[in-house]
Design brief:
By secondary structure, the chain is of the alpha/beta class. It is 29% helix and 22% strand. The protein is built from 14 helices and 20 strands. The chain has helices spanning 52-69, 75-82, 86-99, 106-110, 114-123, 152-155, 174-187, 195-198, 227-236, 276-280, 308-314, 329-337, 358-366, 374-378, and strands at residues 21-26, 71-74, 125-126, 141-143, 156-159, 162-165, 191-193, 209-213, 216-221, 243-249, 264-266, 271-274, 290-296, 299-305, 320-323, 344-347, 350-354, 370-373, 390-394, 411-415. The strands form 6 sheets. A 5-stranded mixed sheet has the order 8-9-10-13-14. Helix 2 (75-82) crosses helix 7. The chain is globular, with a radius of gyration of 21 Å. The protein starts with 20 loop residues before the first strand and ends with a strand.
Length: 418
């Protein structure tokens, strides 16, 4: 099997959002993203349907930058390799089919080669008239495609030396959990944790989980991550000393506020990207609370905070914000809608994000981040190592319509310690 990069697994270790990236997990958007129609897009958690030809060109430069600066693993490559193991193949196929009430496919899928099974688990198993039960006819797929798989952040999260297999809020994404659990347990050899195994009502998603420092988590509480999921994380780390969890409540509407990383991301040791209404508690964030959970050797205390920056300061981390969309509320709202706050750090002060959010990029420029083109970085004309702070921008008109940005499309596996 040909892999895109080194197939040797690395140790899971992520103790911040900004430490130099050593390894990341990606998934190139495949045919699954074109298996939506206007009638099923909402079920697939999209507000629009995408053109794969345009997505392919946009994603090429995004992953090209990552392949230039770090080790990149791809979901489909690892999955195909894992399916060579008969026991794991049986487990994944059976659990996937049982979850979607199509057990009649198990024997047929099990008889196929690993590459075919991996493709069907990701792209879906097409409905066959007169052969498969008619109840699957309307959606055209007996085993549904994983429309959202290229958002590798959501279903799993590297949390220090473990991987949180997130308890997804929507059934259409639950097969992703099975795949990521197999990948991190059996390929990377990582310890995995799951909130739903602790409490069936607990929900967490990776876009809501940010590692501020080795003793700090920032969590969004909204439509995807709930209070019970946050309670699980507090219990998971309750034996640590001087550990903090900052919880920011998020609006449930509109869809652009689904995760914390749509309104807040870390950029550098002392810089963050923020949607200003969240800081000021205006507009959609009026009345949305910020809480600091203080953990120290089994004791847990809750502190109400004015906003995220105050909570971070209380936890020993002082941040200067750059505002998504700049200083104008109109531009802030427009650019937040298309993931203007959603940046991914390649190293401290070296980030990547959408070029289309021009007011946000201009704000970063004024804050001392040199603006680089992804095309130049990917082919080696420019190196991020030549800059103390920089933002690598890649052109995207189609990818933002899927409802996520650079952080959403990346699952870091290993970073340098700060």
């Amino acid at each position: 099997m040909q892999f895109n990069q080194n197939t040797t697994p690395v140790k899971v270790n992520v103790t911040s959002e900004i430490g130099r990236l050593n390894a990341v997990l990606l998934h190139r958007p495949g045919p699954e993203i074109e298996r939506m129609t206007p009638s099923n897009a909402h079920e697939a958690l999209y507000s629009d349907i995408l053109s794969k030809n345009i997505v392919d060109n946009e994603y090429k430069w995004f992953c090209g930058v990552l392949e230039k600066v770090t080790k990149v693993f791809y979901v489909s490559d690892i999955l195909e390799k894992l399916l060579d193991d008969e026991s794991l193949r049986s487990s994944l196929v059976r659990q996937s089919c049982t979850a979607e009430n199509c057990d009649f496919l198990i024997d047929e899928m099990m008889a196929q080669d690993s590459k075919t099974i991996a493709r069907e688990l990701i792209e879906g198993f097409p409905y066959r008239p007169s052969k498969d039960p008619e109840r699957f006819a309307q959606r055209r797929f007996t085993l549904r495609p994983l429309y959202n798989l290229f958002f590798t952040r959501d279903a799993s999260s590297s949390v220090f030396d473990r991987v949180l297999i997130n308890s997804m809020s929507f059934d259409v994404r639950k097969r992703e959990n099975l795949i990521y659990k197999a990948i991190f347990q059996h390929f990377f050899g990582a310890e995995v944790i799951n909130a739903q195994e602790w409490d069936a009502s607990a929900r967490t998603e990776g876009g809501d989980v940010q590692i501020g420092r080795s003793n700090l988590l920032c969590i969004g509480e909204g439509i995807r991550t709930n209070a019970k999921g946050i309670e699980f994380l507090a219990n998971t780390f309750r034996d640590r000393e001087k550990f903090n969890i900052i919880v920011q409540q998020l609006p449930h509407q509109p869809d652009s506020f689904i995760h914390l990383d749509m309104v807040y991301t870390f950029l550098d040791r002392d810089r963050c990207m923020m949607y200003e209404p969240m800081l000021r508690k205006t507009n959609e964030f009026a009345g949305k609370s910020t809480t600091r959970i203080e953990i120290d050797g089994g004791k847990i205390k809750y502190h109400d905070c004015k906003n995220m920056l105050e909570a971070l300061k209380q936890a020993g981390v002082e941040m200067e914000p750059v505002f998504c969309g700049g200083d104008d509320l109109w531009n802030q709202q427009r650019e937040q809608w298309h993931s203007g706050a959603n940046f991914f750090a390649l190293a401290p002060g070296k980030i990547i994000g959408y070029r289309r959010n021009t007011n946000t990029i201009n704000a970063l420029d004024r804050a001392g981040f040199s603006v680089l083109n992804a095309e130049d970085v990917a082919v080696g004309r420019v190196s991020i190592d030549d800059y103390s702070r920089c933002v690598v921008t890649f052109a995207a008109s189609e990818l933002p319509r899927a409802g996520g940005g650079a952080r959403c499309m990346t699952m870091p596996i290993n970073r340098d310690e700060l």
